[in-house]
Amino acid sequence: MNIRFAAAALALLAAAPSLAQTPPPRAGMRLQPPEHGEGPMRFGTMSEAGRRTMMAAMESARDGDRADRDRVRAARDRILAILDAERLDSAALRRTMDEERAASTAMKMRRQTAMTTAFERLSVADRRAFVADARMTRGRVEGRMGKMSRFGGRDMGSRPPEMM
């Protein structure tokens, strides 16, 4: 009996490293969920032509985004520096906030113009598919936000307790 026990223990010890490893993922299986808007999930229920139209619109809108994002970031850094100063320079704060708003607005206008042009080119079916996908995404995001509030987070629109 002791020999059988020893043999079983030895076999278990020999197999332990392979039993402790997780199996390799199945072929084609992602280990991470796709990033927002990545791959075939973006505009998922639209036709291929509709997806190409929307992707092209988004790419064209991105052309100037880098410069505007840099302008927004620089303005926000200047705002923080102004606020951090011993004496608040209200005129400089207003000017810098105007610069930040102008860069943000330029970025938004470029995106909306590109999207409007793309929407005009879509078929009715693709526009409706876009609406359905947008509503589904919004529902999914709102559902996640609701879960966050149930598990200790708070709703995005609610005030923290110390501000009530």
Short description:
The chain has 164 residues and is mainly alpha-helical. Helix content is 69%, strand content 0%. The protein has a domain at 70-127.
Structure report:
The chain has helices at residues 2-20, 48-62, 65-84, 90-121, 124-150. Residues 29-40 have low confidence and may be disordered. The protein has a domain at 70-127. Helix content is 69%, strand content 0%. The chain contains 5 helices and no strands. It is mainly α.
Keywords:
flat; single chain; mainly alpha; 164 residues
List the helices and strands and how they pair.
Elements: H1 2-20, H2 48-62, H3 65-84, H4 90-121, H5 124-150
Shape: flat
Strand-residue proportion = under 5%
Radius of gyration (Å): 27 Å
Biggest sheet, open or closed, and with what strands and sense?
none
Would you report the number of β strands?
A: 0
Number of helices: 5
Order of helices and strands: HHHHH
> Structural class per helix/strand content?
mainly alpha
| Helix-residue proportion | 55-70%
Pick out the low-confidence regions. Answer: 29-40
Instruction: Provide the residue-averaged pLDDT.
Output: 79
Q: What is the straight-line distance between the termini?
A: 72 Å
